[in-house]
Each structure stands twice: as structure tokens, then as C-alpha cells.
Amino acid sequence: MSADVAQNQQETAPPELFVLRDEQGPILYAPLASLIARANESAVAAALAYAKDPGSIEGMTDDERAVVQTLGERGFFTHRAYPRHEVGFRPAQVTLFPTNNCNLRCSYCYAFGGEGGGNGEPLRRMDLRVAQRAIDLIARNAKERATEGENIRNFLVSIHGNGEPFCAFDLIQKIVWYGQDVAEELEIPAVFNAATNGVLSEEQLDFVIANFHSVNISFDGLPAFQNANRPMAGGRGSFDQVDHTMRRLVEAGVDFGIRTTVTAAMVDSMPEIVAFVADNYPGIEQLHFEPVWECGRCLTSSDTMPSAEAFTRRYLESLEVARERGVRLVFSGARQDMLVDTFCKVSSGSFTVTPTGDVTACYEVSYASDPRSKRFFFGHFDHELDDFVFDQKVLDELSRLNVHNMRFCDDCFCRWHCAGDCAAKVLDGIGVDEHHGSMRCEISRALTLNQIQRKLDWRPTDGR
């Protein structure tokens, strides 16, 4: 059976029940049905037996039958379709890496920004024509798909990088202006987002405020951490510049989020970081905590990952601070409200173009010299053809990087939420069927369980 046929099948799944436990006892969880219930051990046993074999109800007591009937009426035993990601490559969005140059030297940078990826590669800058043809492709796809009835209202251009994208500011300006011209010509809106380290000039800030719909800023939350972890290329701290950027974005009403990388040295300060961000940058879209992953420049610095237990404990404490102060706090692996079979778009048409014109499915794999590029690079810009060339065989293999093929995840209640986690991290050098988890699994399970518990404990607030 071909990969396309397999992915397009909407097979009906048998009832999928997991038993979770906390200090109050068992919790029955049906993720595909988004159903949760507290139950005693007898009820749990009856529910599991019935889900496995409906005929088992004949041997149950009256009380057990009543439990099964009640759960059935609420949908716990209803067959449902597995989540299936989009198949085929017809992107309506692109992420462009204008340059691998950088004005910071972050101690844990996964890409050795400003230093050629740590592989001795030269500093590069994207050819404008590469960016233009990428925009042509996604804008045309967006227009055609919208005409065909898909719910697509715009095309999306994200500016990111294995360096600081605004180190190529004049190129970014031309990219945005070109995208706006294409949008006008095709009569479909263009949306521009950016990820940046936040060290921006006034001219750059003016341009961002005028043209970008949202911005994500890498910022380590407290002045001491920011200056130590994310210094300028010359060694001085970067807090003052990034603080100024975010205050201007707040004043201008631009949607922006903060992404904080948490090291072992920072983990106990997570609640304090939330309070600082809430007090100083009111109205931010979200604060995103991620434990540092030991790769790139992190391997040559003193930065280490916090333990899963420490990160989880401090995250839950931070969550209380965030709720009190109206801040949305997120961790990428804890998303109980989502039912997906892939962690990101790596399996379903991710279109990211590096400064060299290579096309990668993963932001974290952006150099041809990276051994993982054999898995994640699936195309390049051909200057003679003046167009992108894609490798369908690699795309077919990428389509397999989903939780359906990760046997390790079969018995995990998080599998339709975190979907096996980040492929670049957990599948480094191994096959998809060899997935064996990571410390991030412990964090995802604990935080997802907390989300489930909070839903069980929710009560209306209308005075009843």
C-alpha cells in the first residue's frame, strides 16, 4: 500500500481508553472522544473489559452494567477516526531563513548562529529570487485551494532563521514588499510573521510594526539570564535592547509572544520569570517555556537541561502565577485540546527555505552538513530552471514521521496530543519505528495530566 493511500484512509478506531491515576484515584480517559471521568476501580475494570470485548457485559453485575451503560451513553465506547495529517505537498505557507549571520552569540544556540553552523560553513544570505519564487509558489497554491473550496483565506510568509533574520534587513524589506505585490495581484491577503532575538534598530522596529502580523521573540525572562545566555557578538548584554523592542511592540499593539529557553541554572526561577514578563510586557500573546536541548553551541558551553521533575514542578508553579496575572503559558508537548498525529508539519508539507536555497522540513536541520539533512532536506532552488525542485521519495519518507508508526507511543495517553514529540530530537539517527522517547515524554505526560485534572475540577463561575 502506498504512503498516500495509507495516510488518506480514515480508519475507524476501536474505543481507546486509558486509565490515569492521581491522589484522588483512577481517571478514565478517552482521548479520541475528548472524554474524561473519575471512577472507582470496579468501574474502571468493567469499562476496560467492555471496550475490549462488548460481549463481556453478559457476565457483569448489575452495578457494572449500569456503569458501562452510563459511559456508553456519553460516548466512551463510540468508534472514532484516528487523526490524520494532510497528505501531499501543496503548501500555502513558507518559512524563509534570510541569513545564518547573527548579532548575538547565545550560549545554547542549536545552529551556532553567526558561526556557520559550527561546521565551518560560510555566512550566507538568501538570494532574493529564491524568496520571490517561494512566495509565488505558496500564493498560487493558496489562491487555487481557496477557489477549490478549501478554508484558506491568505498565504503566510514566516521570517525565521538559523541566524538572526533581521541581520539581512534590506532583504526582508524586499521580501515583504514583493509578497504584498503578489497578494494584490492575486487578490488574496498575505500574512507576515517573524521570529527574532529582539535586538532591532528603530528603523527595523518601525518596519515590523507596520508590516508584521505577529512576532515571536527569544528572551530569557530576567535581565541576568538574558545577558548571560544571550550576549551580543561582542560580549555585552542584550537585555536593554530586547526590553526596548518589547515595550515598543506593547505600545504599538502588535501581537507578540516570548519564547524562553530554560536551562538547569534557570529552572527554579521560572515563576519569577512569569511575574517579570507579566509586569513589564502586558498583553503578550503567550509565554513559551522549553527546556534547553543539549545540541549545537550548548555542547560547548556550561548549559545543561533541567531534570524533567524540576522543569515540571516549576512549570506547574509558574502556571499558577500565569493564571493570576492573565498570561498564557505553554509548553510544546502539553496540548490536551489538540488531536493530531504529527508534532509539527514535518510530515505534512512543511516548506522552509534556508539561506542556501535548500528546502528542509525542520527548522532545526538547516545545513547540508548536518547528518540529519538526508532525512529532512527534500528539495532545493534550481537557478537554471528558476524554480524549486522537490524529491518525492524524501517527501514520502517524511510522511511516515508520525505517531501511527511509533510503536513506543501506542500505550501512551498523550499520543494524539504530543504525537511522538519533535522528530528532529527523538529520531536523531534512528528509524521512526525505533522511537524510544526522551525526558520530554515525562514532562508532556505530567503537564497533560494536569490539564486533564483541571478539566475535571472545573466548575461554572456563574454563581450556581
Quick recap:
The protein is α/β, with parallel strands linked by helices.
Q: What's the layout of helices and strands?
A:
Layout: H1 3-8, E1 12-13, E2 18-22, E3 25-30, E4 35-38, H2 41-52, H3 62-73, E5 80-81, E6 93-96, H4 128-147, E7 155-159, H5 169-186, E8 190-196, H6 202-211, E9 214-218, H7 223-229, H8 239-252, E10 255-262, H9 270-280, E11 287-291, H10 308-325, E12 329-330, E13 352-353, E14 358-360, H11 373-376, E15 377-382, E16 387-390, H12 392-398, H13 423-426, H14 439-457
Parallel strand pairs: 6-7, 6-13, 7-8, 8-9, 9-10, 10-11, 11-12
Antiparallel strand pairs: 1-5, 2-3, 3-4, 13-14, 14-15, 15-16
Which properties best describe this structure?
single chain; 464 residues; alpha/beta; 15% strand; disordered N terminus
What does this molecule look like?
With 464 residues, the protein is an alpha/beta fold. The protein has two domains: 3-82; 88-464, Aldolase class I (TIM Barrel). It contains 14 helices and 16 strands. An eleven-stranded mixed sheet has the order 12-11-10-9-8-7-6-13-14-15-16. The chain has a three-stranded antiparallel sheet with strand order 2-3-4, covered by helices on one side. It is globular, with a radius of gyration of 24 Å. The N and C termini lie far apart (56 Å). Residues 1-10 have low confidence and may be disordered.
